[in-house]
Amino acid sequence: MVTADSKANDEKTVANAMWAWRDAFSSTTTEKILALYADDAFLWGTLSSEQRTDPESVSDYFDRAFVYGNRKVVFNDYHIRCYGDTAVSSGSYTFSFEKDGERLTIPARFSLVYVRRDGKWLIVEQHSSVVPEE
């Protein structure tokens, strides 16, 4: 039986998974962020028009993204919904990084789908896209 306490605990644990992703995005290696994805994860990232559907292509995406220095991401707003061993977080975030000595900022929106496997929330699907100009 799902109780209000267990649902709140799941939402907190998923939020912690989001913070782990944020911290891993700022790390120096792709291994930290890849550890947060399931082997069957699907990624449609902000910086690529290519859909990534296997571990090698997800790794390639982050290898390419991690060439930019001083990467940061800030979650601006988000909503978390838990459905048993599946959870969804969606909202907006802002990426910033250095490219050719210039600091770039990209506002984007996201959806992350998680599954709980062996007690850990792993990303199985991510969609991220630039916020269109008004």
Descriptive notes:
The model has no long low-confidence stretch (mean pLDDT about 90). This protein has a 5-stranded mixed β-sheet with strand order 1-5-4-3-2. The termini are far apart. The longest helix is centred in the first third of the chain and has 22 residues. The chain is α+β, with helices and mostly antiparallel strands. It has a single domain, classed as Nuclear Transport Factor 2, Chain: A (Roll), CATH 3.10.450.50. The chain has 3 helices and 5 strands.
Pick out the low-confidence regions: none
Number of helices: 3
Radius of gyration: 15 Å
| Protein structure class | alpha+beta
Largest sheet: 5 strands, mixed
> Strand content of the residues, in percent?
over 45%
- What is the H/E string? HHEHEEEE
CATH topology: Nuclear Transport Factor 2, Chain: A
- Percentage of helical residues? 25-40%
Keywords for this entry:
134 residues; globular; 48% strand; Nuclear Transport Factor 2, Chain: A; five-stranded mixed β-sheet; alpha+beta
